[in-house]
Design goal:
Layout lengths: L2 E5 L2 E3 L5 E8 L7 E7 L6 E6 L5 E3 L7 E6 L4 E6 L8 E9 L2 E4 L3 E5 L2
Parallel strand pairs: 2-11
Antiparallel strand pairs: 1-3, 3-8, 4-5, 4-9, 5-6, 7-8, 9-10, 9-11
Length: 115
C-alpha cells in the first residue's frame, strides 16, 4: 500500500522560507510523477508544482521563481522548497504521487505565512 507523509509546514513570516518533505512508502518514488498542491480556506485545491519521472518540472504562475520542487529517489522523498513566502501562500499543502490513472495523496501539512 502506497502511503505519502508530508512534513515541514509551520508558521513563517512574510519573506521567509520553508521546505516541505513528502516521504513515500510502499513503493519506489522513482516510478511516480510527483506533485504538490495546496488548498486555502474556502478555496479549491490548486496545483503548485509537479515533476515528472525524468525530472521535468512545472509550476503555477503564482509560485514560479520562488518555489522549487525536487525529488531524491535514494531517500524516496519529494521536496518543495518555498522561498519568498507571502501571506497568500497560506494553505494546507498536499503531496501527490501519480502513475497513470492511479493517484495517491498525503494527509497535508499546514503552512501559515503571517507577521
Amino acid at each position: 500500500q502506497v502511503q505519502l507523509v508530508e512534513s515541514g509546514g509551520g508558521l513563517v513570516q512574510p519573506g521567509g522560507s520553508l521546505r516541505l518533505s513528502c516521504a513515500v512508502s510502499g513503493s519506489l518514488i522513482s516510478i511516480f510523477a510527483m506533485g504538490w498542491y495546496r488548498q486555502a480556506p474556502g478555496k479549491q485545491r490548486e496545483l503548485v508544482a509537479t515533476t515528472t519521472i525524468s525530472g521535468r518540472t512545472n509550476y503555477s504562475n503564482s509560485v514560479k521563481g520562488r518555489f522549487t520542487i525536487s525529488r531524491d529517489n535514494a531517500k524516496n522523498t519529494a521536496y518543495l522548497q518555498m522561498n519568498g513566502l507571502k501571506p497568500e501562500d497560506t494553505a494546507d499543502y498536499y503531496c501527490q504521487a501519480k502513475l497513470g490513472s492511479y493517484e495517491y495523496w498525503g494527509q497535508g501539512t499546514q503552512v501559515t505565512v503571517s507577521s
